[in-house]
Amino acid sequence: MRIPKKLYFCLFKTNPIMSDSIKHECGIAMIRLLKPVDFYIQKYGSAFWGMNKLYLLMEKQHNRGQDGAGIACIKFDVPPGIRFINRIRSNSNTPIKDCFNPVFDQVNDLMKSNSTLLLNSDWLKKNIDFVAELYMGHLRYGTFGKNSIDNIHPFVRHNNWQSRNLVVAGNFNMTNVDELFAKLVSIGQHPIETADTITILEKIGSFLDDNVEKNYRKLKEQGLNKQEISREMVNHIDIPSILTKASVHWDGGYVIAGMIGHGDAFVLRDPNGIRPAFWYKNDEVVVLASERPAIQTAFKLDVSEVKEVEPGHAVIIKKNGEVIDVEINHRSEIRKCSFERIYFSRGTDKDIYQERKKLGAFLVPSILKTINYDFENTLFSYIPNTAQAAFLGMFDELRYFCNRYKKEQFLRFNGQLTPEKIEEILAFMPRMDMVAVKDAKLRTFITQDSQRDDLVAHVYDVTYGVVKSGTDSLVVLDDSIVRGTTLKQSIIRMLDRLNPKRIIVVSSAPQIRYPDCYGIDMAKMNDFIAFQAAIQLLHDTKQSHIIDEVYKLCIAQQHLPKEDMVNYVRKIYEPFTADQISEKISTLVTPSNCNAEVQVIFNTIEDLHKACPDNLGDWYFTGHYPTPGGNKVVNQAFIN
Question: What is the dihedral of CA 236, 241, 246, 251, to 10 degrees?
Answer without folding.
Answer: 150
